[in-house]
């Protein structure tokens, strides 16, 4: 804690009574943007009092700071079930959750960054499309930037500079407030600028147009020029420290050395920014190529999918036709079996009829033979009876006269003759019936 106390830049109180009123007021004002179950990131959280205020409003908070000592103090003095503390570089924040943030708070952060564009572009990958971003910076109109007064600040901002910076990084500034102590208002200049921003709809994370990059480079050049001019003035006032140097000259020289180191660091950061911007542009170009290739592949896939669907419809129609043909074939086979069975039965019946016909023909042949025999017998009888017919007539007349005597004598021969005649008649009747059939 002593290290933080020596800087004078951090709030290190363990209770709210030990925190400056203007710092508490900003976070209490930010808590009005919180709704239950909202995910919030507190960037540059310090010792964590602001993250606790946001969590008390119902948010789940990820609090990030690059100073490991500050995070240790936050975990020890400002614990909360809904706050997760993380040590990390704000330009490369790791989001442990699956969802992006609904609200990102970055109070008293931007003025400490050599390249605030990197941080503000990083916000695009962390925030939801309609997320709110709250920023605060010292107002250059009220507190002119001075390395002697505050060596931890890289620069201060006026309202238009803050709006340009945010817009160039994909943030739409909806409103800029001014703060003095606890009061946050719109109508007049205050020591601190507090901006309410939202993600620009047309902005693509990691990509900036050339005009934005040129403005950023111009500002970096102007900052380097200011620092170089300040160093030259300090060098004119004092010589390098020697044996007769006063403490004042020694302090000025040390300050100049620190400024030169800061200038070199800023130049290196600018070169790094140029390299990163070039890499981002190259990556964007490659991404556009990949997107174009993806669209073409997707279009080809869609066409192939349509073709496959058409082939699928054709195959389903063919399957239906095959099913109908198979049903028809099974029906035809069943009918064929029925017809075969009927034909077999007909053939069996025909065989039986043929056998019966054969038997009938045999019977007819036998009857014909019998008829022939009967005709022969009839002819013999006729040959026998015709000559005796007159005699028989006389006998019948005699028998009428002598009926009893003659009847007794001729009864047996007459019966025999009658039987023969009836048998002959029956055979003729049977033969006539068979011929008619």
From TrEMBL:
- Record bears the keyword Lipoprotein: no
List the CDD domains hit by this protein, alphabetically.
AdoMet_MTases (cd02440)
For this protein, the record's Pfam families field holds: Methyltransf_23 (PF13489)
Keyword list, A-Z:
Coiled coil, Methyltransferase, Transferase
* Single annotated GO MF: methyltransferase activity
SUPFAM superfamilies linked: S-adenosyl-L-methionine-dependent methyltransferases
User: What processes does the entry annotate via GO biological process terms?
Assistant: methylation
User: Is this entry keyworded Transferase?
Assistant: yes
Q: Which residues form a coiled coil?
A: 210-237, 343-377
Protein known as: Methyltransferase domain-containing protein
Q: What is the lineage of its organism?
A: Bacteria, Pseudomonadati, Pseudomonadota, Alphaproteobacteria, Rhodobacterales
